[in-house]
């Protein structure tokens, strides 16, 4: 059974003491109960006078925190079981200064979990099926993890080599701090995706990509059409109205408030996953998504950085994606799979775009923005059907 941390901290390190002006009552449990404070608390921080403090506590200390409730377990976790199913792949060279990363707020040295590889970045991925079969690469959205495809992977294992991975900055992959080898620009995500695909798949692949990372995958595919069998877009931002982040995500890009809320596991994981559709998370699943934010400040700083990059460049990338998918030189069989209960992206204009650009549209009425979470098994059947039809038309 998951256990509550002995002494929940309100900062990133057990050696850095942050005090709320309106402290949480001692009797309030830090279990994820959904009882969020209506107002963001004011806070101040001060060190304990030591010079060797770190912004990340050891995992066993459980140094995560949440303004709206949360819990950390130093016992067995569903996240541990998921990690055992995967492996680490090294891809995309790190071109940082070689210095140890420091947090962007206080300039404190960060712990080992926040330090990226000094040569090649480490990506966490889970594979299913034989490597001799055609490859299907499952790309999670923003913000999420490879874990979101846990129901899809076994559906593809018989006939395909399915690979779900964590983007840099998410899940179990490296979480380099901006200016220490990776700045989370959309251009860097395109380049890093190329390196990762080259590492895990020799032959042609099918790409399945969800949400706000769809423009990144399309930009990569536009320069590597010979490498792609199919591309399946799950609730991508297709229209001009889609080019603005919803408030649930854009808040992470705000000055100071973004740094605070990106460290809150219930805002960064639970709310981001459940506010965009009908998805209701089980506690075991929620703990997998919260784990990176509960055990290290690195995940929050990465979330803050990618939110700012998305807010800056998403409009340009969405327009580029629309142009690319409408161009007569685009030869990749393309399917848009749309969960119609998406609360972030409107369905208005999606049907017209697919019709005009001659791309297949598949509607999933009971799914929201995170299609793979709401209807994982159904999505698995859709993916198999799309690949099967493409091969029959060859």
UniProtKB/TrEMBL annotation:
Residue ranges of every copy of the AB hydrolase-1 domain listed in the record: 134-374
Alphabetical list of InterPro entries matching this protein: AB_hydrolase_1 (IPR000073), AB_hydrolase_fold (IPR029058), Haloalkane_dehalogenase (IPR051340)
Coiled-coil zones: none
Pfam families membership: Abhydrolase_1
GO molecular function, one term: epoxide hydrolase activity
Keyword Hydrolase in annotation: yes
Presence of the UniProt keyword Metal-binding in the record: no
Keywords: Hydrolase
TM segment ranges: none
PANTHER family reported for this sequence: AB HYDROLASE-1 DOMAIN-CONTAINING PROTEIN (PTHR42977:SF3), HYDROLASE-RELATED (PTHR42977)
Record protein name field: AB hydrolase-1 domain-containing protein
Organism: Prunus armeniaca (Apricot)
Source species taxonomy: Eukaryota, Viridiplantae, Streptophyta, Embryophyta, Tracheophyta
